[in-house]
UniProtKB/TrEMBL annotation, chain A:
This is Gluconate 2-dehydrogenase subunit 3 family protein. It comes from the Bacteria.
UniProtKB/TrEMBL annotation, chain B:
It comes from Nocardioides aquiterrae. InterPro entries: 4Fe4S_Fe-S-bd, 4Fe4S_Fe_S_CS, FAD/NAD-bd_sf, GMC_OxRdtase_N, GMC_OxRtase_C. Belongs to the GMC oxidoreductase family. This is GMC family oxidoreductase. Pfam families: GMC_oxred_C (PF05199), GMC_oxred_N (PF00732), NAD_binding_8 (PF13450). Coiled coil: none annotated. Keywords: FAD, Flavoprotein, Iron, Iron-sulfur, Metal-binding, Oxidoreductase. The keyword Iron-sulfur applies. Residues 190-222 form the 4Fe-4S ferredoxin-type domain.
Length: 158, 548
């Protein structure tokens, strides 16, 4: 029984569920899903394979093993061709892989640094920094609205 | 099985209701044992300090217990029409909520009089009776907002702290609502904007929905459990009640529970048990507690337990802009709201009404995956970065929230095929979206499109209402509802279970209608009222409702 924290998706508490081979597969697919450019690193440079390997559950490992068997990624070109086929033939599996990769990518410090260079105020972990007050909030210019008093409630069809 | 504990009261569940009742009873000097199957949640248990916080929202901090699949969760089987959202921990689902702080309105307590459709009945309590408890709950929790919304009764007894900060999206949406001349108001939030004791003011980190390590968010732990423990509350986390027991006369005489840290079994004798396990967990607990005198479960001699499940009609949407929205800054889900269409207008062809809420959203991964609806994910390959920058900092979360009808066949039962980590049957929920609720959501969708155009949005993605439509089940209500007639509910107006002496139920399951607003404020108010009554009766056995 393993009640309480931590969950399997918290890195460092449990042995990796992904094999080295599957981790490499994810890294190759990540490079094809998110190539470098416009100041951003590639999925491989962002170490998406490592991110997924550290957090994957047993179910993730099973799904990825099945995906890797059906859509191999020996080279970057083969990965791209496999992704095209996967998106067309098995949208659910494609969405599963894409979700893992996008999460890994946008959790990377290298990607966050690129976003800051591109002018975004987003700084990754919400705490401890939080965000400063940016502007005054509008308030309604006219007081509009009403409610029905308890004693005024009556049958709507009568 | 160990025995030996004999408190005055056992409270099952440490969410808003269980916490508030524990607080009031311990303040009055009662010896209270509160059993919670989930763990304590400390500041560093929240994902806010990691750059992978968005991934945590999909896994260990997912709303859906079936996704988290932790041993202290219980599975919830559904027929696929809604996704169950609840959190098992000390503080309950207030560890995992937006702090959006609506009250019900007077008319919401009189919907039986207004239309009486399906299983709709009047509450056995009025807004006016509950108002002082709403005020007290507001003071205990700590609410920010702007007084003066004419869509609600005045509440001079519930002052507000200044509004928290919001991203740029707030003014974009507000300008659209202003342009159309519609009712709108900045939402009240259970969020401190000034320090209070060891609770720090909100610093607009944006992710209330995965809790709050600063204590700014008004959780049940912050508002009630910490002071209750100081008053002597015996709070036992990771303690799963497996059965409420009754004596030969059918009166409650205690509970049995399992310590989830080592699997050991325990028995506690008590003359009064309060069940506060939420709109799914509470009926499950009553149905699990069968005996010779209660063969169909506690409170179920009239086949009412679990019926009338409501979860609010919900349709979510993303509003897209070509300007910055700052959606990751400020409280999630609690920006401006519009209640132009809250009240019934039969000319529209349906009853009840809606609230449309606008709020922040999550971070870059969420944007890349297409926002709240996921309908517009950024392309993969060479176009990815351009499409990402067309999405991130460009969307707004929208929710059309409809006042659902209580339908007898929308029901919580036990699932004989799915079990929790203790081997107990899971909850099984059947829910069909009622035509009236669907009409409300479709009507609200048209209104949302008008608002988005006025606000200058360049696009709107609505959650598809097709055969796969599954609305978010954030609010679990109605399944052990209060009633004046034993044939129409599970408890009397004071939360005493009609057919079971010594048993009290108080939480979202007690709600008779849900209005078109988030329910935590109402649950807290109901709990304080219930607890006041229990204190007044202390020293006397709490009889079954129909025996008094």
């Amino acid at each position: 029984m393993t009640a309480g924290f931590p969950h399997h998706s918290r890195p460092g508490y449990y042995p990796p569920a992904l094999s080295e081979e599957l981790s490499t597969y994810v890294a190759t697919m990540a490079a094809a899903l998110v190539p470098g450019g416009a100041g951003y690193p590639s999925g491989r440079e962002a170490q998406v394979g490592r991110f997924v390997a550290e957090r994957a559950s047993g179910q993730d490992a099973e799904v990825l093993a099945a995906v890797a068997q059906r859509w191999p990624a020996g080279s970057d070109a083969e990965a791209t061709a496999s992704l095209v086929a996967m998106e067309r033939d098995d949208p659910t599996a494609f969405a599963y892989l894409r979700e893992l990769v996008y999460h890994g990518y946008y959790s990377s410090r290298r990607v966050l640094a690129a976003m800051i260079d591109r002018g975004y105020a987003y700084h990754g972990a919400p705490q401890p920094l939080g965000y400063p007050q940016s502007e005054e909030l509008l308030v309604p210019s006219a007081r509009r609205g009403s409610y029905t008093e308890t004693t005024e409630v009556s049958r709507v069809d009568g | 099985m160990s025995t030996g504990d004999s408190p005055d009261v056992v409270v099952v569940g440490a969410g808003m209701a269980g916490a508030a009742i524990s607080y009031v009873l311990t303040r009055a000097g009662a010896k209270v044992l509160c059993l919670e199957q989930g763990p304590l949640v400390g500041p560093l248990d929240h994902p806010h300090f990691g750059d992978d916080w968005e991934f945590s929202m999909r896994r260990d901090w997912a709303f859906d217990p079936n996704v988290r699949a932790l041993d202290h969760d219980f599975p919830v089987a559904t027929n696929g029409t809604f996704v169950p959202y609840l959190y098992n921990a000390v503080g309950g689902s207030t560890n995992h909520y937006s702090g959006f702080w609506h009250r019900l309105k007077p008319v919401d307590f009189r919907k039986g009089t207004e239309h009486g459709l399906e299983g709709t009945i009047d509450w056995p309590v009025s807004y006016e009776e509950l108002a002082p408890y709403y005020d007290q709950n507001d003071l205990d929790v700590g609410i920010s907002g702007v007084p003066g919304d004419l869509a609600y009764p005045a509440r001079p007894g519930a002052p507000r702290l200044p509004l928290p900060m919001h991203g740029e999206y707030f003014n974009l949406v507000a300008a659209g609502l202003e342009k159309l001349g519609l009712h709108w108001w900045p939402a009240d939030n259970a969020i401190l904007t000034e320090d209070r004791g060891d609770r720090l003011a909100c610093n607009a980190c944006g992710m209330c929905n995965i809790g709050c390590p600063r204590g700014s968010l008004g959780t049940a732990t912050q508002a009630y459990l910490k002071p209750a423990i100081a008053q002597g509350l015996d709070l036992r986390p990771l303690s799963r009640v497996t059965r409420i027991s009754t004596d030969a006369f059918g009166q409650v005489d205690g509970v049995e529970y399992q310590d989830l840290t080592d699997g050991s079994g325990h028995r506690v004798n008590a003359p009064l048990v309060v069940v506060a396990c939420n709109g799914i967990g509470t009926p499950r607990m009553l149905l699990l507690s069968t005996s010779a005198t209660h063969p169909d479960g506690l409170g179920n001699s009239r086949d009412q337990v679990g019926r009338h499940f409501m979860t609010h009609g919900y349709r979510l949407a993303d509003m897209w802009f070509d300007r910055p929205t700052g959606h990751w800054k400020g409280p999630f889900g609690a920006g401006p709201y519009c209640q132009e269409w809250y009240d019934t207008d039969v000319a529209r062809g349906f009853v009840n009404g809606i609230t449309i809420t606008f709020g922040g959203a999550w971070g870059p991964a969420w944007s890349a995956l297409g926002g709240t609806t996921g309908r517009r994910p950024a392309a993969w390959g060479e176009a990815h970065h351009r499409e990402f920058e067309e999405r991130f900092d460009r969307h707004v979360f929208c929710a059309i929230q409809a006042d659902d009808l209580p339908v007898a066949t929308n029901r919580v039962t036990l699932d004989p095929d799915v079990r929790d980590s203790s081997g107990l049957p899971a909850a099984k929920v059947h829910y069909d979206l009622h035509e009236n609720t669907r009409a409300l959501l479709e009507f609200g969708s048209d209104r949302l499109l008008e608002i988005s155009r006025a606000a200058g949005a360049v696009g709107v993605d609505l959650q598809p209402m097709d055969e796969n439509f599954a609305q978010p089940g954030w609010h679990l209500m109605g399944t052990c509802r209060m009633s004046s007639d034993p044939g129409e509910g599970v408890t009397d107006p004071w939360h005493r279970v009609w057919d079971t002496p010594g048993l009290v139920v108080c939480d979202g399951s007690s709600m008779v209608t849900g209005g078109a607003g988030n329910p935590t404020s109402t649950i807290g108010a109901l709990a304080l009222r219930c607890a006041d009554r229990l204190v007044a009766q202390m020293g006397r056995r709490v009889e079954a409702a129909n025996a008094s």
